[in-house]
Amino acid sequence: MKLLKMFFATPILLAVSPVFAWTAQIYSDPVSYCKAVGTIDKPDARYSGPKLPPWMAEKLNMQPDQGKRMEWRCADGAVLACQYGANIPCDSKALTSKKPTQPIIDYCRQNADSQFVPMYVTGHSTSVSWACHGSRPVVVRSAEVDAQGYQKDFWHKVSP
Prior knowledge:
The chain has two domains: about 90 residues, no CATH class; about 40 residues, no CATH class. The protein has five helices and five strands; from the N terminus they run H-H-H-E-E-H-H-E-E-E. A hairpin with a 2-residue loop joins strand 3 and strand 4. It is of the alpha+beta class. It is about 30% helix and about 20% strand. Strands 1-2-5 form a three-stranded antiparallel β-sheet, with helices on one face. The chain has a two-stranded antiparallel sheet with strand order 3-4.
């Protein structure tokens, strides 16, 4: 019986394996990779190129060995890049809650009428800016977030 199962399983496996080989195409350029995958938060195993290709480094005024200072992702087939900086969390999606956290509430109680609540209190991933009206937290601004959940003003389309 085992021999019979193996006999029937082998042709099926051989017939299916070319399909898997065909769909596992590897890309070394972010542009062709993004055109193929459409939308993805981070390059996966299908991308084999450098984190920061020379053409992208040039567009971002960076050196190709500075890949740790940026991230790129795909959105609707386009390459989007983000450069880390003070309070720019390229590696996380934006937190959009307009409900103050306990640290924000505590900050406003201790710093009544503060014009802003610092990011060490709010967290760096928030897209919401806070101030204190008296001892009550209020939303000052809420930055736009894209369809993938990232703060729009941190990410920019790049192409060779």
